[in-house]
Amino acid sequence: MNKNLHPRRRQHMAYAVGLLAGALSLSALVLPANDAWHRRGPMNAGHDDIQCPDCHQEAPGSYRQQIQANVRYLFGRREHPADFGKMAVANETCLDCHERPNDRHPVYRFLEPRFKKARATLRPHLCVSCHREHQGKRVVLGDSGYCVTCHKNTRLRNDPLDTPHARLIADKRWTTCLGCHDFHGNHTIKTATKVAEAIRPEAIRAYFEGGPSPYGKDVHYHARKEKKHDE
Question: Does the predicted TM-score (pTM) go above 0.85?
Fold first, then answer.
């Protein structure tokens, strides 16, 4: 900056530069085209065309009201904290696109009293327990043998497998379950009758990480793609 300028003029120029830099930074953050800058990580497989407002809706109230509500929560005068800026993504957001009548493991099923242990262990009644966004994965659970939580006492009368389910359970071969049963049951696969011909656990793990589907591309229902929140 020119040292010959009057101090007040230099001060005004500094203010102008600061305001311009602030305006440019704010514009860069709020422009829809720059949504990717706000993301915590890569989108999950199949969510490449989803925009921020499709899942993240404005929280109720003004910023001042949201701050007041959270201050009240900190002082014990409110039971729950309030969302600030954007609302947390809930099951309903996921189900807007993914709910369908043939789901083998729908959310409401895990709300039954007999699945109390599963809720405490895996929290399967929350979509984000398995499918957390912005991690570039389909499934974020570290253990693919989670079927044990509900099915350790499963028995079949006319078992179609060459190795009966009772034997697989006794041997704790829980990583074999998803070789025949995709969790939500949407793929139109022909279930194997021989364990040796089932999808290998390593292929399923790669699928969890965002790789190609070992169950194939044919499904009973496709996810709805209507953008309900950006209109």
Answer: no
